[in-house]
Amino acid sequence: MTTRIGVVGAGMMGSEIALIFALAGNDVLLTDQNVEAARAAIGRLEGVLDRGIGRGLFSEADKGRALGHLRAAESLEAFADRELVVEAVFEDQEIKQAVFRRLDGILGAEAIIASNTSTIPISTLASAVSAGRQTRFLGTHFFSPVHRMKLVEVIPGFDTTDEVITQVMDLCREAGKEPIRVKDVPGFAVNRVLHAFLIEAVKLVEEGVATPEDIDKACRLGLGHPMGPFELMDVVTNSLSLQAQEIMHDAYGERFRPASLLKQKVAAGHVGRKAGRGWKIYSPTR
User: What region holds the 3-hydroxyacyl-CoA dehydrogenase C-terminal domain (predicted)?
Assistant: First the structure.
């Protein structure tokens, strides 16, 4: 059955969340600060689909279905008929809660709001909406690249109903994902494991135990990881990694204190691939 879905935030995460729901045949609206940004994101998704066709991930029929079910929205007001809205804006509590307050006044009473936050507790974010909406508010933490990564962490808030949790997990499964239910704590499950690993990897470099390149190689060949920790940080950005670690450091204390070298990298502007420099230097064509 087709579900009317909206996605707020047309960056890499938001646009690919919109893509996987459109591929499943849902009616999807994508919005950002302006409609031009949303349209540009849909244009980038055509490239994702074309590359996926070349790798056997998608078919031409998949491309036609996805683009046929995905539209750019002029503003949040276009979301009035949406049954589920997924927020995927910048990982900042105030920015996210401002979006939720607006959505709460636009959406119908039965609509569900889901946040793609990777670290901020869901019940904290849900405090921005009315008491009735808090029963229909939860977290859906997707993983990048969304069109390939199967996992979704589904995180209920204090007041989220079981019916809403089941409904959202079913929608994720219909979109080809494997949802797991996770308790509402800072960092949830995966990021707590991941960032303990990333912090230790950076400390190994600080101590001169091995280079970033060799640690990446060791994790690929010795642990079977698809990419090493420094490759991963360069993709997701060092600044986002630092932000996540600072949130968890506040919540859990010393075990999540960010390494000094990561702070230096971010302060120097070495935030990763999109900046042309992170743990390695990237050519402008990459």
Answer: 187-280
Q: 45 and 171, same structural domain?
A: yes
Residues 226, 145 share a domain: no
189-222 residues labelled b (16+ CB within 10 A) or e (exposed) = bebbebbbebbebbebbeeeeeebeebbebbeee
pLDDT-derived band at 283 (thresholds 50, 70, 90) equals confident
Which tens digit of pLDDT belongs to each residue from 154-203? Answer: 999 999 999 999 999 999 999 999 999 999 999 999 999 999 999 999 99
| CATH (domain of 26) | 3.40.50.720
pTM here? 0.91
Which structural domain, as residue segments, surrounds residue 212? 191-275
DSSP letter at 281 equals B
Q: Considering 129, 153, 181, which residue would you say is the last residue of a domain? A: 181
Our count of domains for the chain comes to 2
In a domain, 67, yes or no: yes
Q: What is the DSSP string of 209-278?
A: SS-HHHHHHHHHHHS--SS-HHHHHHHH-HHHHHHHHHHHHHHH-GGGPPPHHHHHHHHTT--BGGGTBS
| Residue 282 resides in a domain | no
Residue 111, sorted as left (phi over 0), alpha (psi -120 to 50) or beta, turns out to be beta
Strand positions, DSSP E, the chain: 4-8, 27-31, 70-72, 84-87, 112-115, 137-142, 151-156, 178-181
Point out the residues that are catalytic: 118, 141, 153, 191
